[in-house]
Protein 1
Amino acid sequence: MDRNLALELVRVTEGAAMAAARLMGRDDKVAADRAAVESMRRSLSFVDMDGVVRIGEGEKDRAPMLPIGERVGNGNPPRVDVAVDPIDGTRLVARGLPGGIATVAVAEEGSLLQTHCAYMEKLVVGPRARGTIDLREPIARNLTRIAEAEGRHVADLTVVVLDRPRHDALLAEIRAAGARVKLITDGDVAGGVMAALPDRSGIDVLAGIGGAPEAVLTACAVKCIGGDMQCRFWPRDPDERRMVEEEGFDPDRVLDLDALCSGRDIFFAATGITDGEMLTGVRYAGHEVRTSSVVMRSYSGTIRWTESVHDLRRLRQRPAVALPPP
C-alpha cells in the first residue's frame, strides 16, 4: 500500500464519534450503536479501498453492526481486511461515562484473524516489555518479567482489568504480586492501547478476558506501537469450543501478535466519544464540533494525536458523513 490510509480512516472514526456523541447519556445503547454504525458504513464507502470486514462488533450482543463479510470501501485498490468497532464501550456512551471511543483498523488482505468466538483471554504490554510475556504462565511471573524489562518494581506497575466476576481470581493474583490495579467497566480496546502506551497513559499491562473482536483491533494498534500481546480463545460452552475447532483453530493455543494480525502495513484510527484518559470526547458548540483522535501506521511506526475542529454546516452537505439532527 503506497499511501497512508489511516489519514482517511480517521475521518471515518470522527464521523462515527460525532454521530454517537449526540446520544451520550440517553441510556439507549442500541440507538447510539446504530448512529455510529450508520455513519461508519457511509464514510467507509468513500474510502479508496476494496475492503472486507473480517472483525465486526455486534455479534455477541446482537447490537447493530457491520457484519463479518460485508464489503466496504469504494472498490478501488488496495484489497484489504477491515476491523471495526463503531463504539468500543457502548454502555459508557449510553450512560455518559468516560472512555467510549470509535475505532477502525485496516491491514493487508488475509492478514487479520477471523473468528466468531465471542471472547478471548488477553495480555498486553508496551514496547519495553516486548518478548517478556507468556499467557501460559501465572500473572505474577509475567509481572516480574515486565517490571525487570521496565527497570522498575512490580509495585510500580498498573494493570488494567475489566470489572467482571470472572476476574476475581486474576485480581487476587495481581494484588498478591504487589501490582496496582485499575478496574474498567467496559472498553478494553482503549485499555489495551493505553497499556501499549505506558508513558502516555500510566497503564503498563492489560490482563483478563474480553471481546475477541476487540482483541484483533487492539492487536492492530499494538503492532503499530511496537508493543506485545498474547491471546487465547475463551469459549463459553462446548458448542462454542466446537465452533472454534471447526474454524480451524486450537482453542487452547496461545496466539501471538502475528497470529492475530500478520500484516506488515497496518492502519489504526480511534476518536474519543466520551472523555477518557486516552482521548477527549466530542465537544459541541453550535455549528462547531471538536474531536480528539489517534492515528497509527505500523510501516513507519508513526503515531499522530490530532485535535480537529469541524463545521457542522459544511459537514451536513457532504454525503460521506452521516450526522443525526441536534
Protein 2
Amino acid sequence: MNLPNKLTVFRFICVPFLFAAALIPFRFHWAVTLIIYILACLSDKADGIIARKRGLVTDFGKLMDPLSDKSLVTAAFLILINLGWHTDIVIMIMMAREFLVAGMRMAAVNEGEVIAANGFGKAKTFLQMMSTGLVFLFLAILEKDGEIIVNARGFNAPDWLNIFCTVTFWICGVVTLLSGLKYAKDGWHLIKTK
C-alpha cells in the first residue's frame, strides 16, 4: 500500500478517536478533538498532493479517499448534532447527496469506470471540514476559558456560536446540494443506459 493510501486509511482510523475525544468529557477534550480533526484533515490534503506529485494515483485512492472524507465530515456533523446543533432539512440534503454519489460510484464500478472527486465535491468537502474545524476550535477556546459546559446535564453555548453553527449548516447544505446535482448530471449516462 502506497503512502497516499495509508493516509486515506489513517483518516478512517481517526474517526472513532474523534468520537471518543468529543463525546467522553475530560479536561480539554475539545482541544484533543480539534487536534485529531486537524491531523485527519491535513492527511486529506497531503494524500492528494503526494499521489499526484509522485504519480501514485490508484483506483483504491479514487474510491476510498472520498469515502474517508465523508466518514470524517459525517462524524464531525454527528458530534455537532449530538450537542444540539442541527437543521433537519440540511441533514437530509447532506445524507441524500452522499447516498446519491455513493450509488453513482457503485454503478460506475459495475461499468468499469471510477468516478473521482470533482472540483465541486472537493469544494464541498473543504467547506465542511473548515466550518466544522472552526466550531471545534471555538469549543476548545471556550472550554479553556470556562465559558462552555458540556457534561451529563447538558450543553450550554453562547448565542453567537449557535448562530454560527446554524448558518454554517445551511451554507454547507446548499453547497452539498449543488455538488450532488453536478455528480448526478455527470453520471446520468450510468443511469440512462440501464
